[in-house]
Amino acid sequence: MFGSIGFTELILILFIVLIIFGAGKLPQLGEGLGKAIKGFKKSVHEAEAIDAESQPQVQAEMPNQVTAQPAPAAPAVQMAMPEPQTAAPSTKG
């Protein structure tokens, strides 16, 4: 169930939790943990339902056989650079 955590390790973890939180807080801690797990399962179930609803729409929009067509090559656009402007000769008198 817990992978490599054995029964002895689980008892040790529960004993440490009992020391840290005390016997009075354990029911509240368990209730909070239960609510968190219940909320997580509910959100996962809702996400799966949303995915299941959107799946037929996506398949209906996509054709059965998709053929790859190369994108048309963009025409080469050559931008004309403006000619450098030279200053007019000044006529100082």
Molecular structure report:
With 93 residues, this protein is mainly alpha-helical. 55% of the residues lie in helices and 0% in strands. It has two helices and no strands. The protein is elongated and about 100 Å long. The chain starts with 6 loop residues before the first helix and ends in a 32-residue tail after the last helix. The mean pLDDT is 75.
Provide a quick synopsis of the model.
The protein has 2 helices and no strands.
**Shape from CA axes?**
elongated
Mean pLDDT rating: 75
Q: SS-based structural class?
A: mainly alpha
**Oligomer type:** single chain
Topology:
Blueprint: H1 7-21, H2 26-61
Looking at this protein, list some descriptive labels.
about 90 residues; single chain; 2 helices; mainly alpha
